[in-house]
Predict the structure.
Amino acid sequence: MRSTTKLVLIIFTASLAASGQTTARDYYNELVKAEGLEGISNSYVCFQEKPSESFMTFSKSEDIKRTMAYEKFPAKIVKGFSGHFIVLMGYYKGVQWANPAFLDQESADIRSASYTAPMNIKGMPATLSFNINWKTLRYVYAVSDKDHVQLSASFGKCEDRTTLALSVDPGSAGSSCSRHP
């Protein structure tokens, strides 16, 4: 009987330790709650298929331009954002890992799109690419060298934050709404 109790206790302790690991979604939820996401690149949030402490957010140029017009940015600034692109931001453990990346659209149709940007890795030219299927919101994020040899890739799924339902704040008289991720 005692050995069974010890085994249950060991399994319970191990499961508590495993469940205590902070995930990318935990870090994302913490940023949303603190209103700490970077401004123009957060219409979508993307999580890797493999367990990770990293996630990405991005916005399409069309959404950015529409927001700028709605927020009454000067027309001169809005016109400066031409073409089709995405602004992508990576986070590691809830901390922005670099400046936003602007990736130009290479190809697109109703089902998918491909975006790329040049970059340097230790002084060597490389290409960052982000391909997304708009129907499933599955993506591949990859880095290739100048000879188009893939150096790294991650796969996952994005969520459209702009379609999240508005709900009435139960603590109010019903007049305010809040957006829930």
Observations:
- The radius of gyration is 21 Å.
- The chain has a mean pLDDT of 79.
